[in-house]
Amino acid sequence: MSLKTEKIWFDGEMVRWEDAKVHVLAHALHYGTAYFEGIRCYALADGRSAVFRLDEHIRRFADSGKILGFPLPYTVEQMRQATLEVVRANHLKECYIRPLAFVGLGEMGLYAPKNPVNVCIAVWPWGAYLGDEGLQNGIRAKVSSYTRHHVNVMMTKSKASGNYINSVLAKTEVKNAGYDEAIMLDAEGYVAEASGENIFLVRDRRVKTTPLTSILPGITRDSIITIARDKGYELVEERFTRDELYTADEAFFTGTAAELTPIREIDDRPIGAGRRGPVTADLQQTFFDVIKGKNERYATWLAYL
Fold it and tell me: Are 78 and 119 in contact (CB under 8 A)?
């Protein structure tokens, strides 16, 4: 995967990819004082392109800044338009979009309220995060030894860059052990989420996902909840333990990067039949129809270029 494209939107200007540079003494590089979003633009069935749930992503981006105390220096509408502009400037029909706000160069030390907040938006082609085969056949997951953040230790509703050291440790741990993705428990031992995805299970066609306690409010998570309920599935948001995952008929991850990826195995135990189950397949098919512009019911989720 190459990240190189033509242009990056940087503090209100479209600059060459090579010129989007940050000083080594930028505050965020030393202390993790940054927040970001992950967004996707899809090539639609009718030949057009559209960004999926752009308004919700940009609102969450702004919310992250409010939570952390270094808000966006641009309005939500300015960020929305900038996102569409940078996709157009790179002539991409389909891409991943990464807005990033970070505390820049100025004072050093933990307290640096006068430092500027810089903002950039980069785009690049990116396929299935957990692999095309994973989308079809499911992936192998392992419960990590690293605990997910407690709500009074980190701000879990902010997509803060510093939060993701926790994810990097968990992901690296399970990848080195031969698995595809990490499942993380909260501080009380209940299933929270994966290193970069939300998690769902299915038992007797009843769909369950973790509530918005210590987890990031995923936008793909919200989309799947809406789709599942619209299709008539019983869907509940309640806490569950890892052994409930072991006995599930089906399980899957959701996220902007992962989209909807089935889980075929957890901790060396096959989930259900050890392959993508019928409820997962049904929700996955509907989700992919939506993001490709084939389902008019959810047309408002698409921001056309």
Answer: no
